[in-house]
Amino acid sequence: MRRRAGDALRYAAPALLGYAAIRLLGLGVLFLWAAVAGRDAWTLLAGRWDSLWYVRVVEHGYDFTLTAPDGRVLSDMAFFPLLPWLEEAVSAITPLAPGPAGLVVSAVASVAAAWGIFRLVDLLYGRRAGVLTVVLWAALPVGIVQSMAYSESLFTALAAWSLYAVVRGHWLTAGLLAALAGLTRPVGLAVAAAVWAGAYAALRRGPEPGSRFRTAVAVLVAPLGAAGYVLWVGIREGSPLFGYLDVQGAWGNGFDGGLAFARFVGELVVTTPPAGLALAAGVAGVLWLYVLGVRRGQPAPLLVYCGIVTALALCSSGYFGSKPRLLMPAFPLLIPAALALARAKAPVVWAVAGVLATGSAVYGAFWLHGSGPP
Question: Deepest of 76, 113, 273, 347, by most Cβ within 10 A of its Cβ?
Fold first, then answer.
């Protein structure tokens, strides 16, 4: 068993080393920028925005609210519990406070996510495509979030390995990981939907002997994390079905089909044409990559998962600046680009990877020293 694990690790080494190199470059630029600017890089990574809310959950449980200047009552129940649970566990066995413990969790989870993405894409499209998908994911403009005490890395790791288990037909593993993803972020139901899509396809093909029961268990277990937490919040709020939506609504988060975001883009095009047109082009690019995935026959579980993550990111009415990081778990969008890059010669691949990694490092440092991810 140990030998098999070692062989798998060596096989994935190019992807994991490439991932580590890109993220270390991003952290290096961030710390250098912070030193020049007189800022504390550790605070930028683990001491602001959502990171503080997770720490409050660890320290006080779900009992904290904050009244915004406009009178809205913001509740920490908007934040799902798996990351603070893991922060608490790391703090219990190390000298680390919850915030730094969150950085440890994110560091481990980000590598696990890179490995899961590699294994999935390698299984479907080959090793080179798997390595390049990981490289592209590491070099996203907001890739610095992968190194923050945020839940994106943890969620992506659980989603990637659940999708891998679905494709391999390991149904109990897929269902359990989907349930854990549902305890990490609201969009965890996208992973459950991917399990359902995979199970439906498997049943249509004709299940292998003895797998029908495992498939049924996976279908039932997959949504329990997200559904259980939403129901718990609803009961505490006095409305089992709508309580969690009320909590999110106080934060300004809701699903309006993308109308608010479309208005925002339109106004930006009028008031600041370069920024508005660049944003519109970015959205069009995301949609085009999804269409490419459909046209090139990505497996249904990937399309279902990626479609739901993308739709919720683009069609929600929350803070528009957070949409790039909300799209980060939609890594199947990168597969068409990775496949195209895989056909290029090595010097081209190295040049593209270098430019993207450098751009991600510089933008990440600039972003965290400015508005950053709320």
Answer: 113
